[in-house]
């Protein structure tokens, strides 16, 4: 009789019934949603904060340049000294005083202008004032050169290189980054899953070792079966947790946005606080459409298929290493020296992915790391949204990468199983790499 | 007699270290077999090989005359020295799981567990977690799990360590009952006196080698030196002792004047003690007359010394 399903079931139930696991599963989405809602809410509150700024303008310039906005009002002071203006700003509770002295030229005036505040001023406010000054200086410069503002506006110097692949497809600037981001999301998911649930596998092995049930069990089943059952059972528990997270988080998010009346798209507004001051692109909508088209063109079915392949293989490789580590040690504190070398390739994959694959998805570094089996699950997924074949990842690279991954998978699982088999029955031995190497020969 | 288990020159090495050196054993069916030796002698390694947890580098193990295979696992029950249970799992669930791993179906396992739980009077533990039980209680459950699938061969590694005397006795009784029902049993222990009375056969393992094996009564017979402990009731001990010393090898004599009792140890050239007994009876009242039989540990020490090997412990 095959005992693997029995082991998987027990490992799954043991994990799912664990109190801290249950709490984590149901608390995390609430915490996550609470955080998102809080951030969105704070952004909303922050946006609505109104400011009053006093202006003492002694010069002949800047009479109409400060236009009040929804959040900022300007109050002009006249016929007072700077000290008097400062005092009244303070007593009236204004947010600041802009002092523009008298001088002959705009340039000289701007040089000696000051913005006084109680504490360090908010960046947006200073930026806004700076922009006004810059615009005025530019106009002054144009005026001196004898160019009218209207003529200048006609001179649109904004330029974008038209790019196309050899096969005639239009390339969009930044689309590579967007694609890599989508792949990077998948890769990141794999990394998180490996670190969290690999750790679970490891602790579960240590628990069996310290509770001394291990020898009872492996007198009934092969250590390899136990290891495999443990890995599969734990990852099924992990997938359950992920599913619960995704479903409950989306429901909670929808509910809370409805309750708090937050427009989710408003959250992006924060990112675009300082829009390009230059002439706006007339083709924004068109470009957006192109991007949308390009995103639809991403072969999602293919991407998800390969995500599953890389996910399963990558996870099995790493979690069997975790299982071997758990078997080699007597308690969790001894695991540190072994954990770091595992996390290293994962981190490397993420960093290489974000720095190198984004800018050049088919460069030598991207190719190298997407072939190397310990990083390929993450890096290859970052490259794949660009498609397979022409213009995308060459088929041979994909095949090589998966074959290498499978070979490594078999090799690593074999090695890990050997260490596991010896390690689970070893007590009181401080494991070193040398010791582990010896175990391979037992 | 049929042998349930035979090992032929089983050798196991861990790197440079030889854990088992050509161990050959024959374990007769329906017997209690003692695997004796100090800690680190290699007993546990041998047992792990029998349980197919590890594999020998060379040599062969036969179960019921056939080479040991994975399918034999269901016919062996093993209570390891390092034993424990899942701490946060319920007793009943855990026992069911372990029984199913041994190949029992769920309903069958449930039925048998119920029987055993009632037998050992622990029926109300079913829904308790192991961490709520004492060590002795957990040991009872481990015992049940070991024997539940009614194996032909039971292996107990240090079975009585951790049991209080009352529970140890209950378990001893159960083991004897299993033996009466036809099960073969291997006891492995370094505390030789703890199983001496139970074993019919023993093997002594020392430093990875078998130094002696066979039927315990035969071994004892071979190792006894015809030494007798004698206690006599007499009024003239001095004269009697002098007479005896002339005829026999006498040692460790002692006279209790208050009770008029003379105690001494006497060695005969053969094990024919009839003549001696008649002689003694004619001289005095015999309080006791006992042949000294060496204990297993004495035999062990003697064997080790005679083989010219020092004993570490």
UniProtKB/TrEMBL annotation, chain A:
Keyword set, alphabetical order: Cell membrane, Membrane, Transmembrane, Transmembrane helix
Pfam families: ABC2_membrane_3 (PF12698)
Coiled coil region boundaries: none
Domain ABC-2 type transporter transmembrane: from-to ranges: 19-417
Membrane topology: Multi-pass membrane protein
Subcellular localization, as worded in the UniProt entry: Cell membrane
Major site of localization recorded for this protein: membrane
Glycosyltransferase found in the keyword field: no
Signal peptide: none
Transmembrane spans: 21-43, 180-201, 242-260, 298-318, 338-358, 365-386, 398-420
Keyword Transmembrane set for record: yes
SUPFAM superfamilies: Periplasmic binding protein-like II (SSF53850)
Full protein name: ABC transporter permease
TrEMBL record, chain B:
Gene3D superfamilies: P-loop containing nucleotide triphosphate hydrolases
Molecular functions (GO terms): ATP binding
SUPFAM superfamilies: P-loop containing nucleoside triphosphate hydrolases (SSF52540)
Keyword flag ATP-binding: yes
Family: Belongs to the ABC transporter superfamily.
PANTHER family reported in the protein's UniProt record: ABC TRANSPORTER ATP-BINDING PROTEIN, ABC TRANSPORTER ATP-BINDING PROTEIN NATA
Name of the protein described by the UniProt record: ABC transporter ATP-binding protein
Species: Zobellia barbeyronii
């Amino acid at each position: 009789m095959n005992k693997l399903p029995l082991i998987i079931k027990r490992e799954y139930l043991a994990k799912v019934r664990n109190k801290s696991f249950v709490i984590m599963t149901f608390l995390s989405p609430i915490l996550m949603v609470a955080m998102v809602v809080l951030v969105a809410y704070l952004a909303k509150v922050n946006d609505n904060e109104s400011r009053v700024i006093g202006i003492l303008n002694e010069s002949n310039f800047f009479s109409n340049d400060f236009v009040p906005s929804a959040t900022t009002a300007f109050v002009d002071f006249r016929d007072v000294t700077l000290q008097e203006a400062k005092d009244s700003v303070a007593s009236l509770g204004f947010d600041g005083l802009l002092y523009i002295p008298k001088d002959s030229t705009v340039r000289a005036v701007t040089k000696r202008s000051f913005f006084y505040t109680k504490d360090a001023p908010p960046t947006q406010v200073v930026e806004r004032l700076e922009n006004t000054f810059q615009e005025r200086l530019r106009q002054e410069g144009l005026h001196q050169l004898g160019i009218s503002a209207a003529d200048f506006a006609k001179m649109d110097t904004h330029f974008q290189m038209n790019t196309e692949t050899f096969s005639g497809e239009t390339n969009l600037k930044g689309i590579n980054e967007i694609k890599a981001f989508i792949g990077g999301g998948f890769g990141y998911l794999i990394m998180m899953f490996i670190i969290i649930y690999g750790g679970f596998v490891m602790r579960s092995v240590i628990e069996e070792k310290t509770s001394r049930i291990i020898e009872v069990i492996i007198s009934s089943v092969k250590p390899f079966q136990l290891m495999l059952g443990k890995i599969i059972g734990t990852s099924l528990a992990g997938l359950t947790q992920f599913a619960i997270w995704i479903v409950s988080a989306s429901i909670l998010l929808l509910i809370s946005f409805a309750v708090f009346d937050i427009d989710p798209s408003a959250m992006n507004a924060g990112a675009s606080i300082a829009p390009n001051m230059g002439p706006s692109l007339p083709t924004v909508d068109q470009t957006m459409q192109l991007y949308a088209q390009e995103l639809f063109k991403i072969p999602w079915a293919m991407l998800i298929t390969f995500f599953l392949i890389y996910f399963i293989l990558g996870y099995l490789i790493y979690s069997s290493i975790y299982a071997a580590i758990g078997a080699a040690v007597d308690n969790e504190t001894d695991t540190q020296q072994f954990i770091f070398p595992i996390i290293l390739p994962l981190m490397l994959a993420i960093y290489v992915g974000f720095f190198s694959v984004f800018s050049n998805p088919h460069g030598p570094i991207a190719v190298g790391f997407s072939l190397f089996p310990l990083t390929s699950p993450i890096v290859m997924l970052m490259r794949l949204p660009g498609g397979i074949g022409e213009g995308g990842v060459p088929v041979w690279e994909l095949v090589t990468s998966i074959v290498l991954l499978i070979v490594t998978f078999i090799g690593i699982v074999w090695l890990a199983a050997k260490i596991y088999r010896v390690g689970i029955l070893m007590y009181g031995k401080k494991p070193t790499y040398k010791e582990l190497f010896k175990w391979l020969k037992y | 007699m049929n042998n349930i288990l035979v090992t032929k020159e089983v050798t196991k090495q861990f790197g440079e270290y030889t854990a088992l050196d050509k161990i050959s054993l024959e374990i007769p069916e329906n017997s209690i077999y003692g695997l004796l030796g100090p800690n680190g002698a290699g007993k546990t390694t041998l047992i792990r090989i029998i349980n197919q947890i590890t594999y020998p580098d060379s040599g062969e193990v036969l179960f019921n005359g056939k080479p040991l295979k994975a399918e034999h696992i269901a016919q062996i029950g093993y209570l390891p020295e390092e034993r424990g249970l899942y701490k946060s799992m319920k007793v009943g669930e855990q026992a069911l799981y372990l029984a199913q791993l041994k190949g029992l179906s769920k309903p069958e396992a449930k039925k048998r567990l119920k029987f055993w739980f009632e037998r050992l009077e622990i029926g109300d533990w079913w829904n308790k977690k192991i961490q709520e039980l004492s060590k002795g209680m957990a040991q009872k459950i481990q015992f049940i799990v070991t024997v539940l699938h009614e194996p032909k061969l039971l292996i107990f590694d240090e079975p009585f360590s951790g049991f209080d005397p009352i529970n140890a006795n209950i378990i001893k009784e159960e083991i004897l009952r299993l033996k009466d029902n036809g099960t073969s049993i291997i006891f492995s222990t370094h505390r030789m006196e703890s199983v001496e009375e139970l074993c019919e056969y023993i093997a002594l393992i020392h430093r990875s080698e078998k130094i002696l094996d066979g039927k315990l009564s035969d071994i004892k017979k071979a190792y006894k030196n015809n030494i007798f402990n004698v206690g006599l009731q007499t009024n003239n001990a001095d004269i009697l002792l002098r007479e005896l010393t002339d005829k026999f090898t006498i040692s460790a004599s002692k006279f209790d004047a208050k009770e008029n009792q003379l105690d001494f140890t006497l060695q005969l050239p053969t094990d024919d003690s009839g003549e001696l007994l008649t002689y003694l009876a004619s001289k005095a009242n015999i309080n006791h007359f006992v042949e000294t039989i060496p204990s297993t540990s004495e035999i062990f020490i003697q064997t080790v010394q005679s083989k010219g090997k020092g004993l570490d412990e």
